Amino acid sequence: MTASVLGAGAFGTALAVAISANGPVCLWGRNATWRGENPRLPGISLARNITVTDDLSRACDSPTLILALPAQSLRGFLDQNSSFLNGKALVSTAKGIDLSTLTGPSALIRQACPTTQIAVLTGPSFAADIAKGLPTALTLACEDAAGGNRLQHDLSTPVLRLYRTTDVAGAELGGALKNVIAIAAGTVIGAGLGDSARAAIITRGFAEMSRLATRLGARPETLTGLSGLGDLTLTCTSAQSRNFRFGAALGAGRPFDRTTTVEGVATSRAVAALAERIGTDMPIAAMVARLAEGAVSVEKAIEHLMTRPLKEE
């Protein structure tokens, strides 16, 4: 078996579809009783070599497990199922920072499953694009260079190209922080402030991302790659991004479906707390956290950001 994907949401299903080009894949979900087509990813037929199951022990027969789970659900899943996961290669696709620990996916995995090989798969991608076989490039981060090389070759396909790095911190922080900035970008568009304002948010937001990530040990060049600037560009400019759509609804004063997972909401709160703890200035992220909680109006948030003391870029 090429790999198992744990998490049968749209993104997990799309990855299963993509890597099934390399061989058999097992796709696990708690309520994965459907066959042929996942209701979470309509219009996409599953290849015959994709086995869909709700039996976790069966899915974990593979030596490589892709954890396609939301960031805020990952810790609980790891704690409950570590006996199935230890000793495997675990590849996390979560893009967020855990609210309870203020740490990223790799730290959660390391604590719950100390005998695993840890990797992070992240970068500019939408589930629908991957599932349709559209060309996509992602970052695969693994501190073990040999293990990363193996995973890179096992999971890359003719239309899914993986670039390897050993900078796990940089890759996962880029993926988490860009969601927060995408909410801010959506907010300025929803509020009718225009593309110039969005460009300013993207640029200053990237400065914030780089500032926090490098403070936490990331390499600057990682942030300028697919997992940082690449993913930031995609999610700040496309309505396919749930974080962007959530921000646009905030800016326009429209309701948003709260049953839809928007990773940047919880991550903005985690980032605000983390930045305060280590003394790093993150004004956009802090304002997104307040906006998402309803603690400040869009008008007041914009006024606050625009009247901050003038300084050099």
From TrEMBL:
InterPro entries: 6-PGluconate_DH-like_C_sf (IPR008927), 6PGD_dom2 (IPR013328), G3P_DH_NAD-dep (IPR006168), G3P_DH_NAD-dep_C (IPR006109), G3P_DH_NAD-dep_N (IPR011128), NAD(P)-bd_dom_sf (IPR036291). This is Glycerol-3-phosphate dehydrogenase [NAD(P)+]. Its main location: cytoplasm. Sn-glycerol 3-phosphate binds at K95, G123, S125, K178, D231, S241, R242, N243. NCBIfam families: PRK00094.1-2, PRK00094.1-4. It is an enzyme of class 1 (oxidoreductase). Pathway: Membrane lipid metabolism; glycerophospholipid metabolism. It holds the Pfam family NAD_Gly3P_dh_N. Its EC number is 1.1.1.94. It comes from Paracoccus onchidii. The gene is gpsA. It is found in: Cytoplasm. Residues 167-303 form the Glycerol-3-phosphate dehydrogenase NAD-dependent C-terminal domain. It catalyses: sn-glycerol 3-phosphate + NAD(+) = dihydroxyacetone phosphate + NADH + H(+); sn-glycerol 3-phosphate + NADP(+) = dihydroxyacetone phosphate + NADPH + H(+). Coiled coil: none annotated. Residues 4-145 form the Glycerol-3-phosphate dehydrogenase NAD-dependent N-terminal domain. NADPH binds at F11, R30, K95, A127, R242, V262, E263. Signal peptide: none annotated. Keywords: Cytoplasm, Lipid biosynthesis, Lipid metabolism, NAD, NADP, Nucleotide-binding, Oxidoreductase, Phospholipid biosynthesis, Phospholipid metabolism. Catalyzes the reduction of the glycolytic intermediate dihydroxyacetone phosphate (DHAP) to sn-glycerol 3-phosphate (G3P), the key precursor for phospholipid synthesis. Belongs to the NAD-dependent glycerol-3-phosphate dehydrogenase family. The keyword Lipid metabolism applies. The active site is at K178 (proton acceptor).
